[in-house]
């Protein structure tokens, strides 16, 4: 059974939890994130309802859908946020991350509407 990241973190001593949190800020890949959460590819596969080889391929991708990445992170008990940073303006958190986008055509014009994820 897959363990939730929150449960693993709660069980750690305070100093170890701080080191893990500091290291998490430096992580660059999904594999690094999975290792920090002490999850195996098999455990992630079970949590996501896919096979282990799918997790392996996913972790090797350099480009993926935001909805896929969100689902991966949420399966570990986390939350994925996308932040747009600008040089002369405050940062903006983009909501509805990875939600489905549908195109509705009316009067010959395409209009986008988001479906909440």
TrEMBL record:
Lineage: Bacteria, Pseudomonadati, Pseudomonadota, Betaproteobacteria, Burkholderiales
Pfam family, one: HTH_31
UniProt protein name: Transcriptional regulator
Alphabetized GO MF terms: DNA binding
Alphabetical list of SMART domains matching this protein: HTH_XRE
Species per Swiss-Prot/TrEMBL record: Limnohabitans planktonicus II-D5
SUPFAM superfamilies for this protein: lambda repressor-like DNA-binding domains
Superkingdom per UniProt: Bacteria
Domain HTH cro/C1-type: 30-60
């Amino acid at each position: 059974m897959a363990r939730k990241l929150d449960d693993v973190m709660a069980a750690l001593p305070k100093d170890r939890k701080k080191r893990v949190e500091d290291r998490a800020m430096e992580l660059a890949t999904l594999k690094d994130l999975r290792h920090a959460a002490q999850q195996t590819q098999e455990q992630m596969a079970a949590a996501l309802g896919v096979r282990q080889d799918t997790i392996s391929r996913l972790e090797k991708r350099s480009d993926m859908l935001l909805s896929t990445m969100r689902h991966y992170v949420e399966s570990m008990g986390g939350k994925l946020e996308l932040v747009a940073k600008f040089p002369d303006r405050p940062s903006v958190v983009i909501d509805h991350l990875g939600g489905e986008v549908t195109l509705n055509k009316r009067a010959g014009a395409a209009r986008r509407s988001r479906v909440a994820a």
